[in-house]
Amino acid sequence: MWTPSANPAVLRPDLAPFVEFDSVMFREGMIWHRVAPVVNVALQADSPGKIAVEELLQGMDGTEDRRASNGDYPRITGNFSNFSYQTEEHGLEGVVDERRRRIYQHILDAQRWTLEALTLRILGNQEKRTADLIFNTGTWTGAALTTAVGTTWSTHATATPIADVLAAKLKVRDGTGMWPNAAVMDYEAFLNLRECDEVVARIHSSGAGSPATAADVTAEMIGRVLDLKHVIVSRANRNTAKEGQAATFSQFWTKSQVQVCRVAETANVD
Residue 7: which region, alpha, beta or left (left: phi > 0; alpha: psi -120 to 50)? Predict the structure, then answer.
């Protein structure tokens, strides 16, 4: 329940409450729904069938489908396996005492701001869980792009982000059989990326555009430079301080790493 941290006698209810945080910006800066799109399922938990990539692409050596002299063609066989999932429900509760709501209703709408706080915290937790999963190098071997980077992108004059992303693309292709279509990064990494001399030169020389200001270098333009369909940039920050302490801000997505990956564009488990 919202309660005043100062003597309410000195407050100015005629001015209404001011909020020192742009909650719309916070929600729009989240990227979890783009990096890990939701797949709707009918059951809380299940073990559906899965056709593995090795079954689909097995034996493509150019000869095994040759027609025999008797008119027969080779026959293929295949196996399917299964994977399992289990859904979880996440939520928070906010109690609004009717008596206190009426006491302070001339200062703020307790129901509205309780709902706003619940929404932001639930969405923030979803963003954090997604970021921890995607940047988990124990799950995604070689997922950290920085493992292949000799000069960080913050060293604008000598950084080689185009070559770094190419190396990451090849690693994804060799490990999965698919080409990546996205780069996932924090906004600070994006700001450094668009300042790199190599990127600026490619933009000016390749027809991707001739921007006059840094703000003209958009994520879409960077995507054309890196030959990636999606450049997904997180702008949301979180408060890591304990309750009652001064705010300490950090990023959901590691600002020193960039994930080159394939984000799902279908309901397949890829």
Answer: beta
